[in-house]
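Quick one, probably user error.
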């Protein structure tokens, strides 16, 4: 079966942040694993470029809005190379192919009788790009997610989507095993539905907000940014104009979405209801990761504790950045990350751990073996326990699995002391030392194989060293 995996599409009103880097690396690790298993995979990411928040940010910067989004879209594209992503698609919501798809989604939902027009007065949060009901507000009337922003009271005539119509179908979808992970995010979605779904506005008056996709047959309105942007998950596959990739990867494939924990309502409810309305297959599984904080506080520019993925790569390198986020950020809980902790993890586990082991073993092999070690059956097989961890989105435990093998090798080196044995004048002892070295080289092959979806370039370096019986260049240099 073909597999499709996608991240969310971040707003292009700021540089890429560490939380999104976590998300794309998680998705990339899964895509790489599935390809190694012989699966046909399509991995997509991209940028969300419409809405009031984008328009206001461009105006504040004194830039033309299209030039503004072009700049930030390139920053997110550049992230692909910086993090060694293997994505097959990159969709921008300002692309003509996406405009076509968003308008077709609108038409299909309209044909299903799920779009109607009415006047509405509500409190609007620019940060969320959505109207808020009383249950979405703090006691003093602020947005729960953006309490620092002042809500705007807006009265206008908009189109609405019959969200309430799909309550029972959504509950049946959410009841499917593994439809939402972790389970408490599924419970969150279920509780939201059971509390009562309200139809939501899916357009804005163009006179107030010009930056968006025009509503079909009504040029006075533009689409609500979420109704527009969520369609990117299938516009990236060529829907509706090109059936090939869409049929292969969405309708007939296994679909997985990776998103942040604040996206449950949008990804598992609104988007799924839109698909139901358009008579399209719903997403098979949505995984929600936690947030990254720093020093016990949410990252913010005003606090000066924001960590950029580009800063991580500049200091530690691409491979170490992937390692740090996959192992030391919990997959589903919020995690606290500081530069001090990052330094500690890098030094202890990469410089003194994996890097030191590879250097020691391959130096011994290069100096004491006559040629490359003949690998045996199983030396380059990926263990089922490892794949189980990754398929269950337990990225940290998958990395732990690899580092358990590294720990076993260190213990073996200490117990067997092959570096002493090979110097013995006794042929039996020196041969035993060479056998110990060969055993460790085979273990490096196993380590390198398992690193392929996690740290692909490191995997290649380790396997190349094994196959050519030579010590590689220093994998992880010490910090200066």
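Nope, works fine. Designed sequence:
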């Amino acid at each position: 079966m073909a597999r499709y995996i996608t991240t969310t599409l971040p707003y292009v009103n700021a540089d890429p942040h560490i939380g999104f880097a976590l998300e794309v690396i998680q998705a990339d690790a899964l895509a790489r694993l599935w390809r190694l298993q012989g699966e046909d995979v399509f991995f997509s990411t991209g940028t969300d470029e419409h809405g009031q928040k984008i328009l206001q940010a461009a105006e504040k910067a004194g830039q033309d809005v299209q030039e503004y989004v072009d700049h930030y879209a390139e920053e997110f594209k550049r992230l692909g190379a910086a993090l060694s992503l293997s994505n097959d698609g990159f969709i921008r919501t300002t692309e003509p192919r996406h405009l076509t798809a968003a308008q077709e989604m609108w038409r299909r939902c309209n044909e299903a009788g799920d779009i109607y027009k009415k006047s509405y007065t509500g409190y609007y949060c620019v940060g969320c790009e959505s109207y808020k009901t009383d249950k979405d507000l703090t006691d003093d009337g602020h947005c729960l997610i953006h309490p620092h922003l002042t809500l705007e009271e807006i009265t206008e005539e908009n189109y609405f989507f019959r969200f309430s119509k799909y309550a029972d179908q959504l509950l049946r979808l959410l009841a499917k095993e593994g439809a939402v992970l972790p389970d408490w995010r599924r419970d969150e979605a279920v509780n939201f539905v059971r509390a009562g779904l309200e139809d939501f506005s899916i357009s804005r008056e163009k006179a107030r907000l010009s930056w968006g996709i025009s509503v079909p047959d009504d040029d006075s309105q533009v689409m609500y940014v979420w109704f527009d942007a969520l369609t990117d998950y299938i516009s990236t596959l060529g829907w509706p104009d090109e059936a090939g990739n869409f049929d292969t990867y969405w309708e007939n494939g296994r679909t997985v979405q990776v998103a942040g924990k604040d996206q449950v309502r949008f990804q598992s409810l609104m988007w799924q209801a839109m698909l139901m309305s358009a008579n399209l297959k719903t997403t098979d599984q949505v995984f929600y990761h936690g947030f990254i904080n720093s020093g016990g506080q949410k990252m913010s520019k005003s606090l000066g504790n924001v960590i950029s993925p580009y800063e991580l790569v500049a200091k530690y390198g691409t491979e170490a950045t992937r390692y740090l986020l996959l192992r030391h950020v919990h997959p589903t809980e919020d995690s606290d990350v500081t530069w001090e902790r990052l330094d500690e993890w890098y030094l202890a586990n990469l410089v003194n751990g994996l890097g030191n082991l590879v250097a020691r073993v391959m130096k011994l092999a290069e100096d004491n073996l006559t040629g490359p070690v003949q690998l045996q059956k199983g030396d380059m097989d990926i263990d089922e326990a490892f794949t189980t961890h990754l398929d269950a989105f337990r990225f940290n435990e998958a990395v732990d699995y690899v580092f358990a093998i590294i720990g076993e090798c260190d213990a073996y080196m200490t117990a067997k002391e092959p570096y002493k044995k090979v110097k013995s004048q006794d042929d039996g002892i020196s041969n035993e030392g060479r056998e110990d070295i060969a055993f460790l080289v085979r273990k490096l092959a196993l380590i390198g194989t398992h690193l392929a979806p996690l740290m692909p370039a490191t995997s290649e370096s380790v396997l190349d060293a094994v196959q050519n019986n030579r010590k590689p260049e220093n994998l992880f240099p010490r910090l200066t």
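Residues 378 and 446 are 8 Å apart (CA to CA).
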